[in-house]
Write a structure and sequence with these properties.
single chain; 42% helix; 4 strands; 4-stranded antiparallel β-sheet; 2 helices; Signal recognition particle alu RNA binding heterodimer, srp9/1; 80 residues; alpha+beta
């Protein structure tokens, strides 16, 4: 997934902040859920297996984190 597509997905979450939307991102190693909290005013990326949640304040930092998550998994697959 490109950084542009990730940013579009994040912009959609902001646009519909009054609705609960959760994206599921699966890679080879882990499953993550992505959502936006209107109350906390941040994006939340949760590792579904561990329950660990990271909070990101804006589209830019969230998109970089998601891009790394996706590309790290793809890189691990090609190296095996």
């Amino acid at each position: 997934m490109t950084i542009i597509k990730i940013k579009e997905m994040l912009e959609t979450l902001l646009r519909y902040e009054d609705s609960e939307i959760i994206h599921t991102i699966c890679n080879v190693n882990h499953t993550f859920s992505l959502s936006y909290s209107k109350e906390l005013k941040n994006f939340q990326v949760k590792n579904v297996e561990t329950g660990y949640i990271e909070h990101f304040p804006d589209i830019e930092t969230t998109s970089i984190a998601l891009y790394r998550i996706i590309n790290t998994a793809e890189k691990e697959v090609t190296e095996q």
